[in-house]
Design brief:
alpha+beta, 6-stranded antiparallel β-sheet
Length: about 550
């Protein structure tokens, strides 16, 4: 072995230093020749294996310890190309061990000696017994599987209440017997005492037998005020979880902030509590409180790590739902404020409108309608739809509406109104296009004149209930800077109802829009009833249930003389 050391290192001082490092290290070291026969083993490997060093020399790798599974293929590749590699090898040695089947992780290097040619040096570290290693690996796989499953179960909508309920229902029973979720409210009724943080109780999940005990946990108030000294508040401030296994009443009270709630927890058999904050990049949006009861084991450190991972993902979903709700509410309020006061038609024209926001899965859109009285007893009906959804779409809608009102006041023909609006939109730089339909009612002439900027055609409902589409040349949307609009004039008999609408009424996923337009045309709508009742009938027959986009309707007819 001394000759081998001399071959590996030049210089007496360097050789002595290398020998000292290798022989005093606690890491097992072996050296093999090109045929994987032992050239050297250090004292650490002798202690691990229980075999004297002399018994190794010159013998093949698998002959001395046949129960050790060496990575021969990896070793041969290192000898072949000289690239160091890591490998795992397992087995049993002649040294009795409570670890059972043992596991080592080693790194292997190719060396060159002066007289012996190529050699292989392996340095290993014992990881643990294989059983524990595989258990840890399995726990990690289970944790990842749980996180992946949570991604499909939590945050399926953009509704805060639903998201919190999904989180609580997922955690109980997958990780706890009781799961409660509270979120920080930016806007709430009342003002908390100074130094308090107000949480809104949003979800509680537990099996039926525990729910009976926990039925009074919420109390009469939907809010919970947290002092700075409470465990829950500290978790939210620091972003770190708190674990109270087999907790005393005093510890549980630090979480619940109320002796009565401690009594309720104890009546339900809760013995261990885990508090996990719901963190986002900007702040903590809430907290999750988990409890284990009865015969359930206390929480493990693995449970804490898993709960943090789940809480992190849920916090992103809750924060997204919160931001969506805020934007949705602002846009909806803006739309309603604008649509609540359409222009007044002439007294001889009756108008009814409806606006239905889409389901919670989509942002509010940019639909609008209007009616404007023009000289000569004429009334201009307007229906438009800005591309896109959200607050910006609603703001752009208000700009289109104001611009169209201004241009319409000049009493141009309807096709020229669309052309002028298109030019002005390009000039002021609106970044969203819009479809628009204009219908000019002229009761004195007994006609209506219509022009379309990429919008769906109006429906004429004749006395007796029969309907027909008034098909128009399809001009480009406003804001496309293409111009070129055409108008069509048709006669209208007294009592005819003109119906303008946005695509949310007739578009349905998986159904051709022509089919839906035929369904609209085939509806038998009584024109003798008030227009409000007519719109109610229309929506009940055609737009029942959740719809995917906003629905705006405008119905108009000449009042009888």
């Amino acid at each position: 072995m001394d000759d081998l050391m001399d071959d590996l290192m030049d210089g007496e001082c360097e050789c002595g230093l290398l020998r000292r490092i290798i022989e005093e290290t606690l890491a097992p070291v072996v050296m093999l020749d090109e045929r994987l026969r032992y050239l050297y083993v250090n004292p650490a490997w002798v202690r691990v294996s229980g075999v004297p060093a002399a018994a190794y020399l010159g013998r093949p790798l698998g002959e001395v310890l046949p129960d050790v599974s060496w990575p021969d293929d990896v070793l041969l590749k290192v000898l072949e190309d000289g690239r160091p590699r890591e490998a795992t090898f397992t087995g049993t040695t002649r040294v009795p061990s409570h670890l059972g089947r043992r596991l080592w992780r080693g790194v292997f290097h190719r060396l060159k000696t002066r007289d012996r040619g190529l050699a292989l040096c392996g340095i290993g570290v014992e990881v643990s017994n294989l059983g524990r290693y595989l258990d840890d690996l399995e726990n990690a796989h289970q944790r990842l599987a749980l996180l992946d499953l949570a991604a499909t179960r939590i945050g399926t909508t953009l509704d805060i209440e639903t998201t919190c309920t999904e989180l609580a229902d997922f955690l109980a029973p997958s990780m706890a017997d009781v799961a409660a979720v509270g979120i920080v409210e930016d806007e709430f009724c009342g003002t908390p005492a100074p130094g308090m943080l107000r949480l809104r109780k949003t979800a509680l999940s537990a099996p039926q037998e525990l729910r009976w005990h926990l039925r009074h946990l919420g109390g009469p108030d939907e809010y919970l005020d947290l002092p700075r000294t409470s465990v829950t508040r500290r978790c939210m401030d620091t972003g770190r979880p708190w674990l109270g296994n087999l907790a005393t009443d005093e510890l549980i009270e630090k979480v619940t902030v109320d002796p009565e709630r401690v009594r309720i927890f104890r009546a339900a058999g809760v013995h261990s509590v885990l508090v996990v904050p719901l963190p986002t990049a900007g702040r903590c949006v809430g907290v999750v409180i988990l409890g284990r009861a009865g015969a359930s084991a206390p929480f493990s450190e693995d449970d804490v790590v898993t709960a943090q991972g789940l809480a992190g993902r849920a916090a992103v979903a809750i924060d997204s739902a919160r931001r969506y709700t805020r934007e949705h509410t602002m846009a909806l309020e803006l739309q309603r404020a604008l649509l609540s006061e359409p222009g007044s038609p002439h007294p001889g024209v009756e108008v009814a409108t409806r606006y239905l926001p889409s389901g919670r899965s989509a942002l509010v859109g940019g639909d609008w309608y209007d009616s404007l009285a023009l000289p000569g007893g004429r009334t201009l009906l307007v229906m438009g739809d800005v591309m896109g959804h959200g607050f910006q779409a609603a703001v752009t809608m208000s700009q289109y509406r104001s611009l169209l009102r201004t241009v319409a006041a000049s009493d141009m023909p309807v096709d020229d109104i669309l052309g002028e609006v298109d030019r002005r939109v390009a000039h002021i730089g609106l970044d969203r296009v819009a479809t628009c339909l204009l219908v000019l009612m002229d009761p004195q002439a007994g006609t209506c004149t219509a022009a379309s900027a990429g919008h769906l055609p109006p429906l004429a409902v004749h006395p007796g209930g029969t309907s027909e589409m008034l098909w128009l040349p399809a001009g480009p949307p406003l804001g496309a800077e293409l111009g070129d609009y055409e108008s069509v004039t048709v006669p209208t008999e007294p009592g005819t109802v003109l119906l303008l609408y946005t695509d949310g009424l007739v578009e349905q996923r998986g159904t051709d829009i022509d089919t839906r337009l035929r369904a609209l045309t085939d509806l038998h709508l009584p024109t003798e009833n008030p227009l409000e009742a007519m719109l109610d009938t229309l929506l009940a027959r055609l737009a029942h249930g959740a719809h995917e986009d906003d629905v705006a309707l405008l119905a108009a007819r000449q009042r009888p003389d």
